[in-house]
Design brief:
binds adenosine-5'-diphosphate, alpha/beta, binds magnesium ion, 4-stranded antiparallel β-sheet, 10 strands, membrane
């Protein structure tokens, strides 16, 4: 018998260590298995090789003229390979990715070939996706829900739900997101957010994936996982191109190809393990135990002298010619060439469901809005209490109508100015990656905003209407309410139109500032019996508030309303006869339906304007491109002054 108690514990320690070792080996084997057989469920796609030559990109910079950001660079990225675009900050990595992915093309020149043929941008977009540096995700939904919506939008109803769910499970498992499946996107860690961005794009398996600095901001472990994942995605036959900022030596070795950019020029292209011999060749010997990735960036940023950069450029030109890629013409039916868009209805229904879910998740915000409308109902009702039946306060009642219009301009507009610019950024990305068209999004968005707006309007109006003593006749109330609804929808549309073009900061200024003249011109000439000159009348009717005011006043006082009571303490009630008020306001003709139709028309026109502005945001035409260039020029000019 063993009398030494230590021997027993030592033995169990040994067993523990062995078990741990076994566990690690099992995990490594599993990782290798995942890397070699990634994503068995995804649709097979044709391999895509990208070649570009003499790519130049210039941007105008105010008085100085223009700035050359890419200086005629060439290269090729092959399918089945993970390529890193490296370089010091400001070298032009993001710019190169933007141009190759087709995200930017104004100011770019040069030749880009896809599988040996000139790139057709429309066709290419159907085969590629671009994951940008900052991760933007739809708020208020969980990882699994985000994946399901992505699958519904990209795969449509042709693919069965069961199949979609197993594809999603496989992707989440491979990207180690299964544990975060039920986490809301806003609460994900940086690494999880990045992996979710990749997971969302993998749903329809695009053959080309561009990523801008996918590892920046991630911790070491997340970085390793992210690069392993990208490598396994590439090994599955896709072309994966990512820009990266000084990877560790072990991560650097995982890239199949490296493309180094410095000051807009290529200073190295080739295998990752060819960097050190290349640098030795130009006279910059990488010290032992030094990270070659750090070293190549240091040399290319000119830290050891500009002559090395010069030599690197010359050597690339002389010794690294771009050989045409030997390509077997694969005409196999198992490959689906382009990724088709799903039907209009599939997109519309998925987007509507997503908007409704987000609305439901964000219900506290709705409760806040309801409370605010009730609060305002009490305040406005209290200020104008019982003035509707009082013949001595008819003019105050005009003030009440105006106040309602102001409420229905600002309350719907301000939240939209805050939210919409962010939503447009998301729309831009999802649309660029071809998740959906603008049409279904626009209709889903428009339809989803109308019911809450009407609901909130009803809460406010059903308080103030009786409190302020407005006529309790159903048809008058219906007219009054409907004019208010139309005006609140216009207020919201103004917010959407501004938010679709301007940033939050600019929009928050422009929105309220531009609504002031709208209010002022609507009441010009009131109280003055002289008719207005034509030009002032035209200006007056250019404001929708004028139609709103007329509609409300006529609903309350028009169409033969009887004379109002004059309180005994008043000697004389000048406007106790409703017609007297209508006369002084210039509204004695019954123009309710004209105003109603005008407001409906303005709503429709504004919706068309929003659609047009969003379209220009997504795909600017020549005029908008020119405006953007002029804007950039003016900004540059002002900042130089
Ligand atoms: P990085 O390699 O860090 O991704 P970028 O491609 O983002 O670099 O930018 C390359 C260079 O172009 C930088 O010097 C940047 O300042 C400049 N640049 C990019 N966009 C603009 C712009 N709109 N106006 C002026 N300079 C710009
Ligand atoms: Mg960048």
């Amino acid at each position: 018998m063993d009398s030494n108690p230590d021997a027993g514990s030592e033995g169990s320690e040994m067993v523990k260590v062995n078990l741990l070792q076994d566990d690690i080996e099992a995990r490594v084997a599993m990782r290798a298995k995942i890397s070699s057989t990634p994503f068995t469920r995804l649709t097979k796609r044709q391999p895509i090789d990208i070649e570009f030559s003499d790519l130049t990109y210039t941007i105008p910079t105010g008085r100085k003229g223009s700035k050359l950001i890419l200086r005629g660079i060439s290269g090729q990225f092959r399918s089945g390979e993970l390529t890193a675009i490296m370089g010091p900050s400001g070298a032009g990595k993001s710019t190169l990715l933007n141009i190759l992915a087709g995200y930017k093309h104004v100011g770019a020149s040069g030749q880009i070939n896809i599988n040996g043929e000139p790139r057709n941008i429309r066709k290419f977009k159907k085969m590629s996706c671009y994951i940008m540096q900052d991760d933007l995700h739809q708020p208020q939904i969980t990882v699994h829900e985000a994946m399901c919506f992505a699958a519904d939008l990209k795969l449509g109803s042709k693919v069965e739900r069961r199949e979609k769910l197993s594809t999603i499970d496989e992707i989440l498992e491979t990207l180690r997101l299964t544990k975060a499946k039920d986490t809301v996107t806003e609460r994900l860690s940086g690494g999880e957010m990045k992996r979710l961005s990749i997971a969302l794009e993998l749903v329809n398996n695009p053959p080309v994936i561009f990523l801008d600095e996918p590892t920046t901001g991630l911790d070491d472990l997340s970085t390793v996982q992210c690069i392993d994942l990208l490598r396994s995605v590439a090994c599955g036959g896709r072309t994966v191109i990512c820009s990266i900022h000084t990877p560790s030596a072990s991560n650097f070795a995982k890239f199949h190809q490296v493309y180094v950019v410095a000051a807009g020029q290529c200073v190295y292209r080739g295998l990752a393990n060819g960097v050190v011999p290349f640098l030795r060749h130009v006279g910059a010997d990488c010290p032992k135990h030094y990270n070659p990735a750090d070293f190549v960036i240091e040399v290319s940023s000119g830290e050891y002298g500009a002559e090395y950069v010069e030599r690197m450029m010359n050597l690339v030109e002389a010794q690294m010619p771009i050989d045409p890629i030997a390509r077997k013409t694969i005409k196999d039916t198992q490959f689906q060439d382009e990724i088709d868009r799903t039907t209009w209805w599939d997109q519309f229904s998925a987007l509507s469901r997503r908007l409704m879910l987000q609305f439901y998740r964000n219900r506290n915000y709705m409760y806040l809005k309801i409370s605010l409308h009730i609060f305002l109902g009490f305040i406005v009702g209290g200020i104008f209490i019982n003035i509707g039946t009082d013949g001595s306060k008819t003019l105050f009642n005009f003030g009440f109508c105006f106040c309602c219009l102001v409420v229905f301009l600002y309350l719907p507009m301000l939240p939209v100015l805050m939210h919409f610019p962010m939503e447009v950024r998301l729309l831009k990305r999802e649309h660029f990656n071809r998740w959906y068209d603008l049409g279904p999004y626009f209709f889903a968005k428009t339809l989803s905003t109308i019911p809450p707006q009407i609901f909130l309007g009803t809460i406010y109006l059903s308080m103030v209407y009786p409190i302020t003593g407005q006529p309790l006749e159903a048809w008058r109330a219906a007219r009054f309410f409907s004019i208010c609804y139309l005006c609140s929808l216009i207020g919201e549309s103004i917010g959407l139109a501004i938010g679709s073009t301007l940033s939050i900061v600019n929009g928050m200024f422009v929105g309220p500032a531009s609504s002031v003249p709208l209010m002022l011109v609507s009441i010009q000439g009131m109280g003055n019996p002289e008719p207005l000159p034509l030009y002032r009348t035209l200006v007056m009717y250019s404001s929708y508030i004028r139609y709103g005011l007329e509609g409300l006043i006529i609903s309350a006082y028009g169409e033969g309303r009887r004379k109002l009571s004059c309180p005994p303490e008043e000697d004389y009630c000048q406007y106790r006869y409703p017609i007297a008020l209508l006369k002084v306001m210039g509204m004695e003709e019954n123009m309710f339906w004209r105003d109603f139709i005008a407001l409906v028309g303005i709503n429709i026109i504004l919706k068309a304007v929003i659609f047009y502005l969003l379209r220009q945001r997504l795909r600017p035409n020549k005029t908008f491109q020119a405006l953007r260039v002029i804007g950039g020029f003016v900004k540059g000019y002002i900042s130089l002054k």
